[in-house]
Amino acid sequence: MNAYVNAPISSLFRTLTPDELHHSLQTSLLHWDQNSDVWVFAYGSLIWRPEFDFIEQRAARLAGYHRSLCLWSRINRGTPDIPGIVFALDQGGECEGVVYRIAADQVKATFPALWQREMPSGAYNPKWVDCHTEEGHTVSALTFIINPQTDAYVPSMPLEQLRQVIHRAHGLNGPCIDYVLQTAQALKQANIADPKLEHLVQYL
């Protein structure tokens, strides 16, 4: 089976311009009052490689979305011609992850790099969501949810095809398989159960 039979045509792929990135960031931060700390909900690589300073970290659960390998990666873990696949939040279920609290006076310095990392192709919809923390509190956090209207969305893939994609793809941040394995390990260390990912890792 050709592992890329359902991959998007590379000629259609484009990254956001600097102006588009800036507009997306500014639009998402309209919710922010400029004085409060900002929470970010992490469910994939941000758990084990946040790349920003934070003043607090908590385990958290998000209802209404689940962690899924449903996003073609054509920059960080693949290329336009040989895309990898990475995690996004997809509709339905719930997701256990981590929330980070970023100090208010660091938000403007922190978020441009975060946006460059997460939003280069605009495949995510940034969204403010209510996350339930282990302390019993609910915090409003910004997170990144798959945009199902883009050609980067992968609603489902046979296990063998998924394995081929993960083994073959390599992007700016390294091999796709490293990403999957490191995420699985980070979830385990954080005592977050993800049976579907655990089954996939055994198959890899």
Automatic annotation (TrEMBL):
Per the record's keyword annotation, is Glycoprotein included, yes or no?
A: no
Q: Which keywords describe this protein according to UniProt?
A: Lyase
Q: Gene3D superfamilies in the record, alphabetically?
A: Gamma-glutamyl cyclotransferase-like
Q: Which Pfam families match?
A: ChaC (PF04752)
UniProt keyword RNA-binding, yes or no: no
* Domain of life of the organism encoding this protein: Bacteria
This entry's Enzyme Commission designation comes to 4.3.2.7
Protein name as annotated: glutathione-specific gamma-glutamylcyclotransferase
From which source organism is this entry?
A: Paenalcaligenes hominis
